[in-house]
Specification:
Elements (H helix, E strand, L loop, with lengths): L11 E4 L2 E4 L10 H5 L2 E9 L2 E2 L2 H14 L8 H15 L4 E9 L14 E8 L8 H4 L1 E10 L16 H12 L4 E6 L4 E4 L3 E6 L2 E5 L8 H12 L4 E4 L11 E6 L3 E8 L2 E2 L4 H16 L5
Parallel strand pairs: 7-8, 7-14, 11-12
Antiparallel strand pairs: 1-2, 1-6, 3-4, 3-5, 5-6, 8-9, 10-11, 10-13, 13-14, 14-15
């Protein structure tokens, strides 16, 4: 599939049980999700033709539906079958897979949308390194002025489209400063995550990572923690104050798109792309390529 605008490509997209020509995969302008953010999604990567931890992503997508009061349009098994079909039709071996569920247009066009149909789509495309050459030299990150909100204000553990509004603004501001991304604090002032990835730090051989009590506990994050523990590396999940970043020696990001990406700088704080960071990135690459589960 040639690179270019995402609405102008060859291929097909799976929509509500049918394959639709890529350029014809459209929704009405009065789609509820477009106006009121009633949508959830998953980002997944396939390696060698197999989606890594596909079922976990499918389960999380439907749990996000529950959290967002969106009726489940299909079962996990149905979703798995649809993703396999979409992968096969794409003809790709290494790919990014986007599964999306949203409330469409119908008799309701206000905040309430209980009578509107729920739709599902699955698109597959080629996508390289999320942060470009940062895997070699380390990404440069800004510090966002936006904070991850309190769990009392949003369904913070859902992978819901509307929760990415401040992520988009933060990433735009970061890119304007020549950065790849931005780190966000939570509403209490603790280090939380990047706009689309979790963060890890290293000090004296010990790994520290923010406690995911107000943001998504990423599947890649959980995978890397299991890898580290299997190697005997101490991993501490805790609240981290921004000033602590001055004392950390290494840093990396994890996410389905980001995979394991070293970080060289966050604001005025600098980090080395050290041996542990490189070994984690290499081990993760082997893991996803072999589709093996950590011990």
């Amino acid at each position: 599939m040639a690179a270019g605008a995402y609405d102008d490509r060859d291929g097909v997209i799976w929509m509500d049980g049918q394959f639709v020509p890529w350029r014809e995969a459209k929704v009405h302008v009065l789609t509820h999700a477009l106006h009121y953010a009633s949508s959830v999604f998953e980002g997944e990567r396939a390696y060698g033709g197999a989606i890594f931890k596909s079922r976990e992503h499918s389960e999380r997508l439907l749990v996000s539906c529950d959290m967002m009061d969106i009726p489940r349009p299909m079962t996990v098994d149905d979703l798995e079958a649809a993703k396999r079909d979409a992968m096969e039709r794409s003809g790709l071996r290494d790919a990014y897979v986007r599964a999306l569920i949203w409330r469409g247009s119908g008799p309701d066009m206000g905040v309430s949308s209980s009578r509107n149909p729920v739709h599902t789509a699955i698109a597959v495309w080629e996508w390289g390194a999320y942060y470009g050459d940062a895997k070699m030299k380390g990404a440069k990150l800004d510090i966002s002025r936006w904070k991850r909100p309190s769990p009392e204000t949003i369904p913070c553990f859902a992978k819901a489209s509307g929760l990415y509004m401040i992520c988009t603004m933060s990433k735009h501001a970061a890119e304007a400063k020549g950065c790849s991304d931005a780190i966000m604090m939570d509403y209490r002032g603790y280090v939380a995550e990047a706009t689309g990835a979790n963060v890890f730090f290293v000090k004296d051989g010990v790994v520290h990572t923010p406690l995911p009590d107000v943001f998504l506990n990423g599947i890649t994050r959980q995978t890397v923690i299991a890898m580290l523990k299997a190697r005997g590396v101490t991993v501490i999940e805790r609240h981290i104050l921004p000033a602590e970043m001055e004392d950390f020696e290494q840093c990396w990001l994890t996410g389905t798109a980001a995979e394991v990406t070293p970080v060289g700088q966050i604001g005025d704080y600098t980090f080395e792309v050290g041996a542990l960071t490189r070994s984690v990135a290499e081990e993760y690459e082997k893991l996803v390529r072999n589709q093996l589960q950590p011990a």
